[in-house]
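User: Second chain of the day. Same drill as before.
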Amino acid sequence: MPAGRLMLDLVGTEIAPRERELLAHPEVGGLILFTRNYSSPAQLKALVDDIRNIAPDILIAVDHEGGRVQRFRDGFVRIPPMTAVARLWQQDQAAGCAAAKELAWLMAIELTQLDIDISFAPVLDLDWGRSEIIGDRAFGDNPEQVIVLTTAFIAGMKEAGMASTGKHFPGHGWVVADSHLDIPRDERSLEQLRGADLVPFGALVDAGMEAVMPAHVIYEQVDQNTAGFSQFWLQEVLRGEMGFDGVIFSDDLTMEGARVAGDYPSRAKAALEAGCDMVLVCNNPEAAVEVLDYLQENPDASPASRIARMRYQPALAVKDESRYRRAKAIAASLLD
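Assistant: Same format as last time:
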């Protein structure tokens, strides 16, 4: 059975009548949750149960990396920014790797316990000291350090039954502009990118990373399309050179960085033709409906087998209380 190609969102803490219709649509394959959808763990569990009653196979996602990007706060352990893990690794490599793994397990187990499939993590971008939108979300500025720590991170996610998503391919850390608000342009050559930002992505593909999210960034010397709309980046480099056979999620098509492709249906068309398996349309219900209408009028099949790999594995989503306490202690020790 084909997988739905659209991931959308909800307005509030309960499902509105119109949203129930949208969730049941066969082209809706995913749902992303935000802070506005959360008031307590009990409320969230009830919301997810309601979503599953409407769309049992829908992929439920959230951005829950830690630090600035953690959508659920009260009732969840506060996860430190990954730069804190990087600092620990520089002092004690074994302790840094252990922290990366345990924090990832902690983050994932709290979500899988509530029937949430994925957090879009880890960030593989290098921290060049230029991008405020990446900044302390990164695991460091050295590709080898990022590889070691993110390999440990995805191992921890997997032990909690959660698949990983590396972002933002081929690297968002150099550009100063925020792609939520602007159209960033990276002036570096392909050779420079291959020697730095692309290195963690290639290594994590080899390590079994299940999904990738491309950047809304134009790499001017390589392609005049943003990476998420570029067949060169997604087909030639990611699928071809790196041999990646997992899921490619677009970044949110309502971001300013996606405006280069035109209106919302045109953005969805460009992302899918470039090679994305699922497109995200968030924080704009009207735009989501426009994209859904386009998808219905232009049927195609995203590989259901790929999307299915992103569902969490209940057999692994077991909360070991002693490990949970240890991971909480690590999280607390790394918070400022």
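The first strand starts at residue 6 and ends at 8.

User: Great, on to the next one.
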